[in-house]
Amino acid sequence: MHSLYPGSTDPLPASATLVLVSRNPEDRTRAGWSYSGETWTDADGRGVVLLPSFVRAHSAGFDYELRPIESDCSARVAEEIVDGRFTVVTDVPHVKVAWRVTAQRRRTDPHPSEPKGEEK
Fold first, then answer.
1. How far are the Cα atoms of 8, 21, 24, 51, 82 from residue 88, in angstroms, in the given order?
2. Is the pTM of this model over 0.70?
3. What Rg value do the Cα atoms of the chain yield, rounded?
4. With contact defined as beta carbons under 8 Å apart, do 104 and 62 qualify?
């Protein structure tokens, strides 16, 4: 994972954590893992988060959680994950943002319907 630090346009390494999410049978949207870390936004209030290559194999979607640290500003996902990266934006520049990405699980129908044939 990389993030942009204040005053720099070069991506620099930052810590990130892979967490296995407990599988709750009531919650059919969790895939069993999440990835989290921190990033700094630049002078335009944008920060790009690069994720590990295994994230590219997941295609069912993601849930995003963002929390600005030591700032009263707001943060949102400006660009969702594409090519192993996503972009966060804050309404104030140079803000540290904690983030978590949780993979969604493909929804499967526990009772698949029979293919409908032509009526005779």
1. 17, 23, 29, 13, 13
2. no
3. 18
4. yes
Rounded distance, CA 39 to CA 90, Å? 11
pLDDT attached to residue 116: 53
The DSSP letter of residue 53 is G
Blockwise average pLDDT, block size 10, the chain, 120 residues:
37 47 49 83 96 80 92 94 93 95 71 53
Q: Tokens at residue 69, please? A: 């640290």
Residue 90 structure tokens: 């804050």
Q: Which domain holds residue 89?
A: 2-104
Q: How many domains does the chain have?
A: 1
Note whether residue 111 is domain-resident.
no
Count of other CB atoms within 10 angstroms of residue 119: 4
- DSSP designation for 66: E
Q: How far apart are CA 35 and CA 17, in angstroms?
A: 6
| DSSP helix/strand/coil, 55 | helix
68 pairs with which residues across the strands?
Answer: 97
